Amino acid sequence: MIQDLAIFWPALVAGVLVAATHVPLGIRVLERGIVFLDLAVAQMAGLGVILGDWLGFEHHGMAVQVSALVAALAGALLLSWTERRWPEVQEAIIGVIFIAAANAAILLLAANPNGAEHLKDLLVGQVLWVRPAELPLVALVSAAILAAWCWLRARWFYVLFACAVTVSVQLVGIYLVFATLIVPALATRHVARARVPIGYGLATLGYAAGLALSAVSDLPAGPLIVCTLSALGILFFLTFRPRIPT
Fold this sequence. Notes:
This protein is mostly helical. It has one domain (2-239): ABC transporter involved in vitamin B12 uptake, BtuC, CATH 1.10.3470.10. The protein contains ten helices and no strands. The protein has helices at 2-32, 37-54, 62-85, 90-109, 115-124, 135-152, 157-172, 174-187, 195-217, 221-239. α8 packs across α9. The N and C termini lie far apart (52 Å).
């Protein structure tokens, strides 16, 4: 039991830190109607990780982190520019960037004998392998992003989004990043007050329940958290949706 707690508490803290930035950003993404922005920018960050690995950088070294951040910022700045030029087709452009980045990553991994495993880790994540030593820096970066979000909001939305995704995608994987961003925002869509705190609570409960199920079932934690969080989000949305007069 103690050994399980030693494995699961860093994963839960990592999930809470990811939710700290992604819940308010997700609400903004939903308001702007650019739901798949997260997938596109996360995939760009993932492409940066794979490119850094392909260039021979240490897998968890600073060079790979910089490579991921530069790739995510490049994608975010490009999308910021296209939103000003062609706002009517922004969602389609986001889709094109996502699929192009995803297939560029596959091409870079094609010659790597461990390519399939790297791709799986990037998508599903290895949340149970989060090291406690990583968490203080992640907490510091998350706090800085939240502070900047409170002050800058719309003007730096894409840049702050890229920074948040770069940190989270290497902690929990692309699928969990997307779920943490969109599910609480969608579930609380009709909540008038305390929307962000409720979103935080929902995300935390989803991570905790998914990790608990992983502990008792021995199934992968990442997919279980995504499914648990999605189920909780759907339940909350259906329970608290506005009643239509009959």
